[in-house]
Amino acid sequence: MTDTLDKAVMGLSGGLMMLGVVGGGLVEFLAGPPYVPTTESGEVLTAAAVAPNVRAALVLAALLVLFVYAVYKLATPVRGQSQHSERATAGD
Amino acid sequence: MEYNTRAGTESGAGYGAAGTWPAYWIAVVRVLTGWWFFHAGFTKLLEGGLTFDPSGYLQGMAGTVLAPVGTTLAGYPGIIGPMVVIFETLIGLALIVGLLTRFASFGGVMFMTMFWIGNAEYAHGVVNSDFMGLLLFTTIIVFGAGRYYGLDSIVERTGLVQGAPRLKYLLG
């Protein structure tokens, strides 16, 4: 059963990722050309409505949330399992 | 240990576990992949309408294993150009909302196969970013990603689809 913390992490990480990728992209569309904020060689255009670094930082934050949660899950006992059954599951 | 490889759906595809991490993540992958294609198509549409000319790219496929396809299609830029713009946009939209997901992803597979072979950027091996894009679409098909937070989960419950289960091969 997915608990509240799982849902919170899903919402936060997914929200940050969508904000950085889709939200930032929609703002670029609404702001008008150029619709792609970088050149083919990766040069950042000053005309970008949302700095690509800001969008990248949002996605990075989303990944960081997932990483922190993964560390938390590793550090806490598996719910509803004894140490014996946990070892058995891990060995399957 | 027994494994239930048909868990979730009648077709044997999918987790049948909306609300769990795998369901959440396959939905995230679907939406972001959709945004990738929607952005590619819609920016072409905004910048040049349906006048996109792919003939140079297609002719550049000479020497690849799909050279006959590329050079043949290059002869019809007035048809292929608008198709690229429209299909990239529609495939993207379909994946974002999760409607006709497998059908749209098949189109994505076709595009990415052309890009992978056509770009032929094998300097760091054949497993490159184009190939990864191809894998994304095939993964979305296999997992029936539209069933998770997507409209296909609703459409598949309609009488039409219940009466014609093969439609799930296009949905999901």
TrEMBL record, chain A:
Keywords: Membrane, Transmembrane, Transmembrane helix
Transmembrane segments: 12-36, 56-75
Protein name (Swiss-Prot/TrEMBL): Cox cluster protein
Organism: Halobacterium salinarum (strain ATCC 33171 / DSM 3754 / JCM 8978 / NBRC 102687 / NCIMB 764 / 91-R6)
Automatic annotation (TrEMBL), chain B:
Alphabetized InterPro entries for the sequence: DoxX, DoxX-like_oxidoreductase
Sequence intervals crossing the membrane: 12-37, 57-79, 91-119, 131-150
Membrane-protein topology: Multi-pass membrane protein
Cellular component, GO annotation: plasma membrane
Keywords tagged on the record: Cell membrane, Membrane, Transmembrane, Transmembrane helix
Compartment list: Cell membrane
Protein name, as recorded: DoxX domain protein
Species name: Halobacterium salinarum (strain ATCC 33171 / DSM 3754 / JCM 8978 / NBRC 102687 / NCIMB 764 / 91-R6)
